[in-house]
Each structure stands twice: as structure tokens, then as C-alpha cells.
Amino acid sequence: MNIWVVFRKEMLEQWRTYKVLIVAAVLFLFGLTSPLLAKFTPEMLAAVPGLPAGLTDFIPTPSVADAISQYVKNMSQFGILLALLMSMGSVAQEKERGTAALILTRPVSRGTFILAKFGALKVTFAGSLLLAALGCWYYTYLLFEPLPWVPFLLLNGLMLVVFMVYVAMTLLCSTLVRSQSGAGGLAFGGLILLAGLGAFPRLAEYLPGRLFAWGAALALGVDKTAWPALWVSLGLIVVCLLAAVLVFRRQEL
Amino acid sequence: MSSIRVESLVKTYGPVHALDGLNLHVEAGSVFGFLGPNGAGKTTTMRILTGLARPTSGQAWVAGVDLATDGHDLSRRIGYLPEEPAFYPWMTPLEFLDYLGRLYGLQAKIRSARVKELLDLVKLGDSGRRRIGGFSRGMRQRLGFAAALVNQPEVLFLDEPASALDPAGRKEVLDLIGSLHGQCTVLMSTHILADVERVCDVIGIMARGRLIVQAARQELLEQVATPVFEVEAEDVYGLQAWAETGRTLPWVASVEFKAATARVVVKDVSLAKRELLPSLLQAGLVLNRYEELKPSLEDVFLRLVGGEGLK
């Protein structure tokens, strides 16, 4: 199957162009430092000179919940940003440079071209998130208490789903336009739109962002689900990829 | 048998007719030179025939494959070298050709041998492990040529294949194209007329989205052959004197002077070949030069396309 040949090339490209390294390093760094920040932020605040007496009493004692909250906050910001940055040039740059024309006159379908890119980005993000999770788990264990493995992995799985929503959306944008910056701008618009919709509580229940809260609750053993958000997220991934393939099939190179 | 068949192909971009009812037949095994001024529709034709663009109307078949039905089958049978081939700068030529070989499903042993053979063919054997990002335009062009041959295509599309090369590189590529004669069908667009004269056996000239002429190279040259002889003599006055009587000869159309050279335009080339030289010698002239002017493809091109200029 040619999809494996193209996937292999995509992985090699991400490796050679340091995309794997960048995603892994950034996520790992924030995974590792999240429990550290949670643990030491109160101590750092208390050490600020000139703090009114008695104020330190109001700073709560850090807990494992703070470590998880910090981890989810960091991952949601930097993971999504990386999803946009790593995907925005995927198709647009190949069209702009002319490599798409050179490859698509070979036995490679347009669907294979898009799906292999999505698959490679998924592997990069999954691997990087696993590293980040290991870092976070280890420091949480050192500074607080060991987290139960399965719920913590489920949290990371849900975060991966959110990242993939943004990867798929950015791939669609990258297919729609011919320039990398245009694709980035369009994807950023999509990000703002989803964030804006998230401001409406009833709508937020159905948006990918809700998966972060569900994941955090899972990791902390709180009974709270967000199945509609998961279905919508998976649906968004499928719709974005399908739209990207259909649009790309109609495009002339 | 036609290797490429195009019938009434139309391609419009808004109000612009890039192709306006193009008809084209390219025989299997021939090297077809595709000429035309800028905007004539050559690249559009190639993009449609390689599956990168879709026609607005009309039909086309390449290597027996109907373009309207099966793009996947087409890609296994063709090779394509764009005007400015693009590559992944982080790859090496070895990796790139190997990647293409994998896409065609070549087995590891065959693939490795084919990659080596192609790199040697385009004189990039020593640069096989260098990053393509550091290659000159000429090197990229040669690599593009190798890339177009990975699958031993039945039909090879070459868009300006030698324009970026130095004279030595151009000679090598043209020799290579010439060597493909009979092995595969080549459709080559170029603005270098000398290249077409050198390697193409059939020539098609496009203008305004249509093919205005298609013929075997020699036939085309003869069709528009200019029946002109140029003569230079030791005694210029003697030549001028001959011109007075020469103009009255029944097979002579006119005699004009350009400095010391007489341009004799004849009505019947074969008769002139027999009669002109004896006539000059009978007049007692000692000749420095006597030449039948051969029309060049440039003459043909300019006559057919007029002042639209070359791409």
C-alpha cells in the first residue's frame, strides 16, 4: 500500500526538519515542569519580599489536583499551538514549492497524500504526549503522590483527540489555500471561532475543549464525562479530513 | 498507433481560453517537439495530459488510458519533468529516487539497481548522498530527468528539459532524449529551436491554444523552404552585371544585392540547382561562395507564428 510509503516519507521529513524534536521537546518540557510549578509556585509567592503579613496563610497547600490542572493548562495551550504550527505548511507548502505536482503524477492518490500527513502528525503528537505524560507522572510521583496509570493515560488520550482536531482542521486550511501563512491564518481563525463558541456554556459541552476538563476529572478520580464533546471532536476530525481530500481532489496543481 | 491522442481539448480560465479546441496525435516511439510562443498553451496541455489539471471539455488518451476515467493507471505509464522540478531539500538524490521507486512498487533489489543506473545516467553518481537543498539548478534539472525515468515510462513529458543546463549538460540531456527514440514516446516543449531541430523527429507548433501545424521535421522544413541561393564572387561588378541578365531567366524570381552578396530567389529549386552554377561560370565569374540557403526551424516558426515571439 502506497500510504505506508508516503507515511514513511512524512515521518522521515518530520525527523529531518526537526518537527519531531520540537514537538517532543516542548511537550516534554511542559509535562515535566507542570508538577514542579504547581508545587513551588506557592513557595515562590511566599518568598516575594514585602508580602503583607498573613497573606501567605491564604495560599492553599499545593495538591496533586494543582499538578494535573497545571499540566492540562500547559498542554492545552502549547499542544494546540504546535498542532497549528506543524500542520499549516503540510499541503500548502508542497503546492507552493511544486513537490505536490511531482509526487501526484506518480501512483499516489490525493487521499493518500493527505491521510499519510495526518497519520504522521498523529504519531508525532502521540509519541510526544507520551513523553510529556511520563515526565509529568514522574514528577507528580516525586512531589505529590503516584497517579493511577489508566486514568492518567486516558487524560492524555483525550488531549490527543483535541490536538488531532486542530491538526485535521489546519490540514484542511492548508489544502484550501496555496500559502503556508494563509493556511496558518485561516487555522488560527478556526481556533478563535472554537474558543469564542466555547464561551457559551451550553455549546461548550459539545466542543473539543471540554475534553480537557473530562480528562482532568478522570485523572483525579472525579465522576464527570463529556461524551458529546468526544463524538463531536471525532466527527470534526473525520469531516475536516474528508473535506480536505475532496477539495484536494478537485484542485489543479 | 497514437501514443497521445487529444481531441477538441478546451481549457478556460475565466474569460481566457488557454486551450481552444486542441487536436493532437503523437505516434508511439516518436520524439515530439512542442513549440509555441508564450501563453500558447503548451504547459497547460502537459498539465492536463499528466493529470494535474482537468480540461473544460474535450477528450484525451495517453498510452491508451482515457484521462477522464483512470488517473491512477495513467501515473504508472508516464514520466513527467516539469519546467522547474521541485524536490524535498532534506532528501538526498538516492533517497528521492528510492522513494519514487517504492511508490511504483519496485522490489528492493530492482529499485536499488535502477536508482544507481539513473544517477549514473544523469552524472549525479558522486552526489547521490548529498542533500538536494544544496544543488544547483542544473543538478536539479538532471535529477528531475532521472526522476521522470524511474518507472521506465511509456510516455515521457518534458517541459523545457534543457533550458537550465550549461552547453555540456544540454548536450548530454539532448543525447539522452535522442537515445529514447523508439523506446518511449517523448513530448518535449522547449523554446530552444536548435534543441528541437537536433532531437525531435516530429514537430508541433501551437498558437492561441491550437495546434497550427504538425509535421515530420524534414517535411516541415521543406514545406516552408525558402528558395534562395547566395552567391559571392571575386569580381563584384561582374556579379552585378550577371544579375541584370540573371533576372530575366525564367526560373529566377529576383536577384538582390546585400553588400557584395547576391541573393538569388528562384521559382523552381530543382531547376535552379542545375542551371544557376553553369550560368554564373559561363559569365566568367570566379566564385568565393555559392550556397543554397537551408531554412531553419526559426524561419518556419516565425513565418507560422508571426510576431508573437518565442517563449
Could you characterize what this model shows?
The complex is a heterodimer of chains A (253) and B (311). Chain A is elongated, with a radius of gyration of 20 Å. The longest helix of chain A has 34 residues. Chain A has 253 residues and is mostly helical. The relative contact order of chain A is 0.14. In chain A, 78% of the residues lie in helices and 0% in strands. Chain A has one domain. By secondary structure, chain B is of the alpha/beta class. Chain B has 11 helices and 14 strands. A 6-stranded mixed β-sheet of chain B has the order 6-7-8-3-9-10, with helices on both faces. Chain B has a 4-stranded antiparallel β-sheet with strand order 2-1-4-5, with helices on one face. In chain B, helix 3 crosses helix 4.
Number of helical stretches of at least 4 residues of chain A: 11
- Radius of gyration over C-alpha positions of chain A, nearest whole angstrom: 20 Å
Oligomeric assembly: heterodimer
- From the spread of the alpha carbons, the general shape of chain A counts as elongated
Distance between the termini of chain A: 24 Å
